[in-house]
UniProtKB/TrEMBL annotation:
CDD domains to which the protein is assigned, alphabetical: RGL11 (cd10318)
Domain Rhamnogalacturonan I lyase beta-sheet stretches: 1-83
Pfam families registered for this protein in UniProt: FIMAH, RGI_lyase, RGL11_C
Organism encoding this protein: Streptomyces alkaliphilus
Source organism, top-level taxon: Bacteria
Identification of the protein by name: Rhamnogalacturonan lyase
Length: 801
């Protein structure tokens, strides 16, 4: 429950949990009702929603809410006070400023945020990525400060900090951090890319560092001479030496040996033959200077490779699983796949802009229920040329690979002058994945088999790792390749949702940046098949796109894009040129329409409604990621089904959390109990942050009969039931012989679940419920019987009993 002071009174909002839902009615889901108390006295009984406005409540009022089933209170929340300022500031501990090897000073600001219950207490903790002021795009030269990932409780207690070290560059494309309960123990783990120098810092009760511990490097890396003291960041001189080494080994490169690339560098550069091969050191240095000073600048004025510094193109790369509560390292493995080289094979030298360390270091990550039951972590590398994805299950002790997808290299005839985009990779199954990926991914059950797929931009990977489809379209006459079947190709914005509720299943809305080489600048496709529903050619880089219910008079979600795209209805009618913003959407309004979060760089963030205008000005805060204008997080983390806005204060001393205080008469369970939405919150922080959507149509015209009653297993449910029993024993509501008779079957259920035997656990819960209803000796009060019976039945239903 959350309470917020407003001009009209104290607004109260709380969750309808998935297990409290029994069905649907005309204006919402059915299930538990709620008693609302102010200062210990019953204030209201709410049946049609999960919010209430107390017009007589003052700043000193204290509130709690209790779930009511069949007229009996079966669950009660803690007493809370209203937020006096209309928002809540979660205090942060900003990392110290730093100085790069080039002498540049940098500071820190809070960037992306994710949430997870890291200690199993039923409350979300906040995981914050700190971005240095000199963070870079992968195409930008220069050193960056270290990336830090902090974990905070709601009161601002810093539990631990992961310092990724000097060998992980800072920027949106580099660090994708997943926070999720991967092993089902009721506590979230963290998982992300690490390197030598990554360390865990814990803190004492006074907020002072208590310990520092480096991650564990593999024995083979230690034997090879790598260490946590290493610094792989390149200076300009280092890069020149790196190129010299590359040229010295040119004759031995497999692509040269196999005859796929020119036998000499002079041939690759288009100049007359000057040197014998293998090159001598002197000759390699001369060719390097020619490459840096003449060839590269002749391709583009941006190719200032003499200034190339701060990149990391060598050294070990790891994937580490951390305990969310303590920060302890649980396992570290080699990152798959490794970079292979500095981007030469990835096409980073082939185009007019020579950008070592660019395509090779494009990372994405997400969470997906690939088997329909257990969450897997998905990590991806590359999308312009070679495209790779790997999925892992965390079983509590080890990472177990589900599958690995690799398009293979995109063939080039000359790595210093070629066009590797839009070229099939060498793998016979996955070759068409190349150039289809976006700066984000999504996970959803697109084909209705109960298992989630990976939507990788213009292609989709099935739950088993096979290629479901890769989308192509015929290029129109005005394009660069009339009549050819071309990839839809890379883009910056993607939305997977039930956009058109008149059609079965989900849809995918994308915009594409290929310009005259993209057959479509925007497209709405069937998520199950990739079939084009509507779209159009733009001939330019269409950089922004969004979906949302901004016009409640029309069915479904509207779609829109930048440039000439305009605003469209769900069924493909163009509605006009004028469009809302495209940075981030939020479900803020009482009527389930969609609002837009605007504001970027130094502009104060706002929440704007397409028809009603400005609904909120988030004074004293900022968004992230420059022109992208992303809030730190938009998610349903408190209260009813609406989403909260989480942004950093201007000085990053706090996360400021805003809650919608519009009174709604719509009753819906928390969106976090929809698996597609919950996994979406986990991947929202990935690279170019995109909104999160549930698996059902969420809009002003929602058909409640299509909203599913959640079926899920809540990790820790038996433990929660044991805690509830312990509280009732302490209060005297359960006493005598009933203590052992009720406690024993719960202990048995917990042991069976540890062994993976859900059927036996369900039988133990059935025994528990029998003892609750008809105790043989001892005392079980009516209140205890109602509470334990309700929650025991919930656990049994989750177990399939």
């Amino acid at each position: 429950m959350v309470a917020v002071a407003t001009e009209e009174g104290n607004f109260l909002s709380w969750r309808l949990l998935g297990h409290e839902v029994t069905g649907h009615g005309d204006t919402g889901m059915t299930g538990a009702d709620f008693n609302v108390y102010r200062d210990g006295e019953l204030l209201a009984t709410v049946t049609d929603s999960t919010n209430h406005l107390d017009t007589e409540g003052g700043p000193d009022a204290r509130y709690r809410v209790a779930a009511v089933v069949d007229g009996v209170e079966v669950d009660a929340g803690e007493e809370i006070a209203p937020w006096s300022e209309g928002y809540y500031d979660l205090p942060l501990s900003k990392p110290a400023d730093g100085v790069t090897p080039a002498g540049e000073h940098y500071t820190y600001s809070a960037n992306d945020v994710s949430v997870g219950d890291v200690n199993g207490d039923g409350r979300y903790e906040f995981i914050v990525k700190w971005d240095p002021s000199n963070s870079k795009d992968v195409s930008q030269r220069g050193y960056t400060g270290n990336v830090h990932i902090d974990t905070y409780t709601f009161d601002g207690t810093l539990l631990h900090r992961i310092d990724l070290g000097v060998n992980i560059r800072a920027g949106a494309h580099y660090t994708q951090f997943l926070v999720y309960d991967f092993d089902g123990d009721g506590r979230s783990e963290m998982m992300f890319k690490t390197a030598p120098g990554t360390k865990i810092i814990t803190y004492d009760d006074n907020g002072e560092p208590a310990s520092e511990q480096y991650i564990t490097m593999p024995e083979e890396d230690l034997a090879a001479g790598w260490s946590h003291e290493d610094d792989y960041r390149m200076s300009a001189a280092d890069y020149r030496e790196h190129v010299v080494g590359m040229f010295l080994g040119w004759h031995e490169h497999p692509e040269v040996v196999e005859g796929n690339w020119p036998a000499t560098l002079e041939s690759a550069f288009g100049i007359e033959q000057r040197y014998d091969y293998p090159l001598s050191r002197v000759d390699a240095e001369e060719l390097t200077d020619y490459f840096l000073d003449e060839y590269a600048p002749s391709r583009s004025g941006n190719n200032r490779l003499r200034e190339f510094e701060g990149f990391i193109v060598d050294g070990p790369e790891y994937l580490t699983v951390f305990d969310g509560g303590s920060g302890a390292e649980l396992e570290t493995i080699e990152y798959k796949p490794g970079r292979h080289d500095d981007g030469l094979m990835w096409g980073d030298y082939a185009m007019s802009r020579i950008e070592p360390g660019n395509r090779v270091d494009r990372f994405l990550a997400g969470v997906a229920y690939l088997d329909g039951t257990h969450p897997s972590a998905v990590f991806a590398r590359g999308y312009y040329t070679r495209t790779t994805l790997v999925a892992y299950r965390w079983n509590g002790e080890n990472l177990v690979e589900d599958w690995y997808v690799d398009s293979g290299w995109t063939p080039m005839s000359n790595p210093f002058n070629d066009s590797p985009h839009g070229v099939d990779g060498t793998d016979p199954e996955y070759g068409t994945l190349t150039t289809q990926g976006f700066h984000s991914l999504a996970t959803a059950d697109v084909d209705g088999d109960g298992k989630q797929e990976i939507i990788y931009g213009a292609a989709t990977i099935d739950h088993d790792g096979s290629l479901l489809y890769s989308s192509f379209a015929e290029a129109p006459p005005q394009s660069a390749a009339p009549g050819e079947m071309l990839r839809l190709g890379h883009g910056d914005a993607m939305h997977v949702a039930d956009i058109d509720p008149s059609r079965p299943g989900l849809e995918i809305y994308t915009v594409h940046e290929g310009g005259p080489w993209a057959p479509l600048g925007f497209a709405l496709r069937d998520a199950a098949t990739g079939e084009l529903l509507y779209g159009g050619y733009t001939g330019v880089d269409t950089g922004r796109g969004m979906v949302g219910d901004i016009d409640p008079s029309r069915p479904g979600l509207e779609t829109w894009g930048s440039g000439s795209v305009g605003l469209w209805s769900a069924d493909g009618e163009r509605l006009g040129d004028r469009i809302p913003g495209t940075n981030m959407s939020i479900r803020w309004a009482a009527d389930m329409t969609t609002q837009i979060v605007n504001g970027a760089i130094d502009v104060t963030p706002t929440i704007d409604d397409w028809q009603r205008g400005r609904l909120l000005t988030a004074t004293g805060t900022r968004t992230n990621n420059h022109t992208k204008g992303n809030p730190s997080l938009v998610a349903d983390i408190f209260g009813d089904w609406r989403e909260e806005l989480v942004v950093r204060t201007t000085d990053s001393s706090a996360l400021r959390i805003f809650v919608s205080t519009e009174v709604t008469d719509r009753k819906l369970y928390t969106l976090m109990h929809d698996p597609m939405y919950r996994t979406g919150v986990a991947w929202q922080q990935t690279t170019y942050n995109q909104p999160t959507y549930p698996a059902f149509h969420l809009g002003s015209g929602v058909d409640w009969s299509t909203v599913p009653v959640p079926e899920y297993w809540a990790p820790g449910s038996v433990g929660s039931l044991e805690s509830r029993l312990a509280d009732l024993i302490d209060s005297g509501d359960v006493a005598g012989a009933a203590v052992q008779r009720l406690g024993k079957p719960l202990e048995q259920a917990a042991r069976h679940l540890e062994r993976g035997n859900a059927k036996a656990a369900a039988k133990a819960i059935e025994q528990f419920l029998h003892q609750v209803e008809k105790p043989r000796g001892g005392t079980v009060s009516d209140a205890a019987r109602a509470s334990l019976g309700h929650h025991g039945a919930v656990v049994l239903r989750m177990l399939g009993g």
